[in-house]
Amino acid sequence: MADERSSKTASSEAHKHTNRLAEEHSPYLLQHAHNPVDWYPWGEEAFAEARKRDVPIFLSIGYSTCHWCHVMEVESFEDEEVAKLLNDWFVSIKVDREERPDVDKVYMTYVQALYGGGGWPLSVFLSPDLKPLMGGTYFPPDDKHGRPGFKTEGKRSLGHTNKNALVQSGAFAIEQLSEALSATAKSTKVPEALPEKAVQKCAEQLSDSYDSKYGGFGSAPKFPRPVEIQLMLYHSKKLKENGMPGEAKEDLSMVVLTLQCMARGGIHDHVGGGFHRYSVDECWHVPHFEKMLYDQGQLANVYLDVFSITKDVTYSSVSRDILDYLRRDMIGPNGEIFSAEDADSAEFEGASRKKEGAFYIWTSQEVENILGEHAPLFKEHYYVKSSGNCDLSRMSDPHNEFKGKNVLIERNSTSEMASKFGMSTEEYLKTLGICRKKLFDVRSKRPRPHLDDKVIVSWNGLAISSFARASKILKGEPEGTDFYFPVVGTDPREYMEVAERAAAFIRKHLYNQETQKLKHSFRNGPAAAPGFLDDYAFLISGLLDLYEFGGSICWLTWAIELQNTQDELFLDKEGGGYFNTPGEDPSVLLRVKEDHDGAEPSGNSVSVINLERLASLVTSGSDQYRRNGERLLAVFEKRLKDTVMAVPLMCCAADMFSIPSRKQVVVVGPKSSPEYEGMLAAAHASYDPSRTVIHIDPTDAQEMRFWEENNDKIALMAKQFLFRQGRCSRLPGFHMQSPVYDPSFLSHCCQNDQQAKVDMLRVE
Predict the structure, then answer these.
(1) Where do the Spermatogenesis-associated protein 20-like TRX domain residues begin and end (predicted)?
(2) Average of pLDDT values for 59-74?
């Protein structure tokens, strides 16, 4: 089971030290429960102790799968001298950034604003009233490599000659940041031409930073930033629609090379599936080995998008690779999807220290011993060498940590390699799959990386979206397509079941049906932290995909409920836009309107798209949805003009919102018909982020009641269908006189039925 590797609250071995974190549920806090540092969790007990002793607070923020967090723990927090300094002169607080993103946001913003950069572990010294005094990221215990040591920084915060000035400076910084990050709209909507210009400008700037050799936008370290891929795909589609196929092809080619290089690189786990967090070099080879759920959900979606455009099963296979990895390793017994796997693990059972990447890397001898006669083929295909292969870039392994080790990377053409070994391409791919399975079986016996089995609502929302979309988009794969390990070859319908189980878990365990409010996360029960903007926005997006790609009407009903709650808790009704927190916790000093689309999209960007989709689905409340969306975009007008690279998804959202009428496809008929799945798959076969798909079974009383209350035009279509059938209680199957399984037909209907905005696919 995937959850067997989760952190344990109890241990068979005796510990020299135990602190308050032993009572927590967060895997990250539990990792520090036996440090000699007298840690407190974030809360009033710690704040009161700092006020009582009149000492500063040392705040340490990280997460359980963070490599440098582990390094700092070993070097500093397990060091008795450092612990004595902290215990004597500070109140020390440990925060899991995944459990409390609101707290992390405050102090990360401060460090980034004052020092020009940030990251984890985040280390900040605070006054007893939580105002920041100074901060940074990773501190070694002593000064080295030009970095100030932890002991130096701790003593500096204590020995400052004018503590009042330091406190006042921190308070002033928070005030300034609060003003800067909670902008208000100066108008009700953005200028008419701005959305299209923003998309164009962002695409141009991304093109300028494009790496034509290895793909990706920008230099090393390279992060898979799916929001950039989404922007380029969206812009490519607009260019094609505007009669510029050459320019559209250029944009698409950048995306294609990027996704190919990522899939062939070491950032992709060739043996077990899924993607690591980022590559330390420019060629996507040597990764930072942790695996994050938010990456998997977003990457599966962009690979699905490119499959929808190209119909090349290379991309559908990678999306399956990601989703099959999640199914195998990251899903709990009740359908919940866990948050991350660690970068570090022990090289062997009983090892005293863990090493980064130990679970994933191979020696040449290991490969030969495991694969036997197929070893030469496999080694050449994946660039495996006896001296180790982390030599493609000076950035790949600057400290020789992986000397003699190999991170698998594909550098040769499959067809050329097959020809070299005298095999058909199919036989060659099958052989590689068999080899990967053998390595997987051996790797499974190694000490596994730590699994953070915390369930985060927002990240589950991203994964729900990808599973739901895969259930229909993958039906476009040619019949008889072969799949090779670690891809399982699942019937796409099973992916819908995964999505629905994950959504059902959240509804049962993290949603209060009376208050209609979410909790943020779950581990051994719901965490105390409330749901934040990202939780609502990402989950609503996932639920809309769950419905549109064939799920029950109950998911759409819940999405509407959640949107109402989101508006109640986070909407700035006077200034426009959404705050990131409910604003109920006085210990959280900043309440900001987040707009940055980075490794994860911003809650505001996703919310604009949600509002547009909801306004297209239902007529009840649609005007308010549009007003809120227009006002939200007006809040970020300056960003859409001046700093588009920071908001690629918001650029797309603004352009979608500017289109007068969103395209709709309405599928009407009995869902019990075996052809129904094919009809929905046809409706979703082409790439079009500005399309809404509505499906209704006129024999389902619950669905009819929903549409009568929320969009009577859809209900009328269903009633007309029943009338045409003579109001029969037993309906026949599909009879199609138009080629509705042809995506070009659907695209043609949607583009040319501008008056009604609707292409209605009926069961006749």
Answers:
(1) 18-152
(2) 93
| Contacts of residue 237, Cβ cutoff 8 Å, sequence gap at least 6 | 248, 687, 688, 689
Could you tell me the CA-to-CA distances from 610 to 285, 514, 539, 622 in Å, in that order?
36, 23, 10, 11
Q: What are the pLDDT digits (tens) for 651-675?
A: 999 999 998 888 999 998 888 887 8
Predicted local confidence at residue 763, as pLDDT: 44
Q: d(Cα 447, Cα 437) in Å, to the nearest integer?
A: 18
- CA-wise closest residue to 431 among 500, 366, 371, 519: 371
d(CA 355, CA 343) in angstroms, rounded, equals 8
Predicted local confidence at residue 156, as pLDDT: 65
The angle at the Cα of 462, spanning 458 to 466, to the nearest 5 degrees, equals 160
Percent composition of the chain: helix, strand, coil (DSSP 3-state, to 5): 50, 10, 40
> What does residue 141 show for φ and ψ, rounded to 5 degrees?
-65, -35
CA 31 to mean position of chain CA atoms: 24
Distance CA 209, CA 207 (A): 5
Q: How far apart are CA 97 and CA 448, in angstroms?
A: 23
CB 60 within 8 A of CB 93: yes
Res 59 pLDDT > 60: yes
240, 246, 250, 251 alpha-carbon torsion, rounded to 10°: -20
Q: Which residues pair with 222 in a beta bridge?
A: 279
- Per the structure block, which two tokens stand in for 547? 């419905």
Given this model, what pLDDT does residue 623 score?
95
| SS3 letters across 191-220 | CCCHHHHHHHHHHHHHHHCECCCCCCECCC
Amino acid at 600: E
* Residue 665 CB partners (closer than 8 Å, separation 6+): 683, 691, 692, 693, 694, 746, 749, 750, 758, 759, 760, 761
pLDDT in tens, 11-51: 435 789 999 999 999 999 999 999 999 999 999 999 999 99
From CA 482, how far away is CA 430, in angstroms rounded?
A: 9
Angle at 538 between CA 536 and CA 544, to 5 degrees: 95
Q: Which of 411, 286, 263 is nearest to 361 (CA)?
A: 286
Q: For residue 482, which amino acid is it? A: D
Q: Is 245 helix (H, G, I), strand (E, B) or coil?
A: helix
| pLDDT score, position 175 | 80
Residues pairing with 478 in the sheet: none
B/e letters for 58-90, b = 16+ CB within 10 Å, e = fewer, are bbbbbbbbbbbbbebbebbbbbeebbebbeebb
Quick one: how far is CA 158 from the chain centroid?
39
Instruction: Tell me how far apart the alpha carbons of residues 484 and 487 are, in angstroms, rounded to a whole number.
Output: 5
3-state DSSP assignment of residue 92: strand
Cα-Cα-Cα-Cα dihedral sign, residues 355, 361, 367, 371: positive
Backbone region of residue 219 per phi and psi (left: phi > 0; alpha: psi in -120 to 50; beta: other values): beta
Look up residue 129 and give its two tokens.
């009233």
* DSSP-derived secondary structure for 566-591: HHHHHB-TTT-SB-SS-S--TT----
Buried/exposed code over 356-385 (b: 16+ C-beta within 10 A; e: otherwise): bbbbbbbebebbbebbeebbebbbebbbbe
Q: What is the DSSP letter of 522?
A: E
Residue with tokens 């002593």: 142
The type of residue at 257 is L
Burial of residue 154 (CB within 10 Å: 0-12, 13-18, 19+) is buried
Do 526 and 510 form a contact (C-beta atoms < 8 A)?
yes
The DSSP element (H or E) to which 470 belongs, if any, is: helix 457-473
